[in-house]
Write a structure and sequence with these properties.
The protein is mainly β and 225 residues long. The chain is 13% helix and 45% strand. The longest helix has 9 residues, at 47-55. The N and C termini lie far apart (54 Å).
């Protein structure tokens, strides 16, 4: 299997598969493909895992595309300006990502829901349910804006504005902290809470979030009056 990521700011992922190789994506995720690829749609893992994926921002049903001849190609396009990043889960190597990040993965990768604590879910900006990537293989994420990678030492913390966490290694702790200072809360413009990531491990931060972009665009949308 080979892959190529091309295009900015709306990137697309093209995967070339040998005969018998396959990938899965959410229903409706395929953009175009060559002849010699079959498609099978199901709940992948059963009803409960499907419901868990729904809470993490993905569809109940997944589509599996399998190459029936060598060199078959399939392309999936990002639905938002940003980047496509590849993960390689393996033994002792799992990742946690924001909701709606999943683009596609090889069959050995398990996409499941990762439930945060009550405080982090209410105030951390990412919600109660994130996405966990485990198993072994390749997984591709569609992320917003430009992605910046940082490596945190054990106990080292970084505070991130709500919605700007793209993904992080499962060894990294995730929580939320209240902004200190009355003036900061009223006039700081960052909200009451910031997400806090604690090392050890790598984190990937996105420079833009869909929710923040929508908030900035809404004042310019005609009201129809």
């Amino acid at each position: 299997m080979h892959y190529k990521i091309a295009g900015t700011p709306m990137p697309a992922l093209t995967i070339t598969m040998d005969q018998g190789e396959s990938i899965y994506t959410q229903s409706g995720g395929m953009t175009w493909m060559s002849e010699g690829i079959s498609m099978e749609t199901n709940m992948k893992g059963g009803l409960m895992k499907g419901i868990g994926r729904m809470f993490s921002g993905e569809s109940l049903f997944m589509a599996t595309y399998t190459a029936r001849r060598p060199g078959a190609e399939i392309t999936l396009a990002s639905g938002f300006p940003g980047e496509i990043r590849v993960l390689e889960p393996g033994p002792g190597r799992e990742y946690i990502a924001q909701k709606n990040a999943f683009l596609c993965a090889t069959p050995g990768v398990t996409l499941s829901a990762h439930v945060t604590g009550v405080k982090s879910g209410l105030f951390g900006g990412e919600g109660f349910v994130l996405q966990r990537y485990s198993g072994q293989g390749l997984a591709f994420l569609e992320l917003d804006g430009t992605i910046v990678e940082k490596e945190l030492a054990a106990g080292e913390k970084i505070k991130v504005d709500t919605g700007n966490i793209a993904f992080f290694e499962a060894s990294v702790g995730y929580s939320s902290e209240m902004v200190k200072g009355f003036a900061n809360i009223l006039f700081g413009g960052e909200g009451l809470f910031l997400s806090t990531l604690t090392g050890p491990g790598k984190v990937w931060i996105q420079t833009m979030s869909v929710s923040e972009l929508a908030r900035r665009i809404i004042p310019f949308i005609p009201s129809g009056k």
